[in-house]
Amino acid sequence: MKKIHFVMALLCVLGIAMAKNREVFSIVPVKSGTLEVTYLANEGFMIAGGGKKILIDALFREGVGGYAVLSTATRALLEQACSPFDGVEAVFATHFHADHFDAEAVLAHLKNNPQAFFFSTNQAADKLRATGQFDAVKTRLVATLPKEGERFRYEHRGLRVQLLNIHHGRSRPIENLGCIVEIAGKRILHIGDSEAEAAVFQKYAVVKDSIDVAFLPFWYFFNDDFQHAVREQIRPRHVVVMHIELDTFRSGSWPKKWASIKAEFPNAVYFAQELEKKSFD
Hints:
Mean pLDDT: 91
Shape: globular
Helix content: 25-40%
Number of strands: 14
CATH class: Alpha Beta
Structural class: alpha/beta
CATH topology: Metallo-beta-lactamase, Chain A
């Protein structure tokens, strides 16, 4: 166990040293009202603005074949809550799948960052309990799955959080949350691995939330009902396309697919490199 802790600490130090030589790690002041989004892997992001930071679907380890995973150095920084991942107020996991959440990774970050709360599903909470280390963080866990159409609301350290039941497929017994977070005076929406049809977003009247940045999986742009959900029931000012298969990049098929997305959704962007950053005003 001592060796493991030593290795993680060493990676943390090495990661910071690496950061000094990488532009993506430079500390850039975020203007009031500006969101800075840092891509981590798959659907994992850090979102910063107004002096606040949150992580969504960022604390995982092995991942799932075919999708991006974190590098060892970045994972160490995340789990040790080292810069630039220090001072995070809230951590979210939309669901418990291995390319979005790992119980040990979440526990590590929470132990090293005593101000952070963790928001997720009851299924993810069960995974944390199964580690035998749950008591150390249980007062900072918010686990829920509201009824479809209802919202769970919470405020933590100036962040206004709303959690929605956005299904991961009607036939799948997987709890999946849609997360609406107000940060730097803007509202972001991250829907995890949602397969929810337009009617679900209509039931929630998401369009009335005036979403500034919506984080949506790529399949929402290749299906008529999903596209309708984006255009009419979410209507975000900006769209981040996520959960893109690695083979799509490797095969060379992505440029054509991306062109078709941009033709329909000119406000869309995507991330391809770990620690890539984009700002949204």
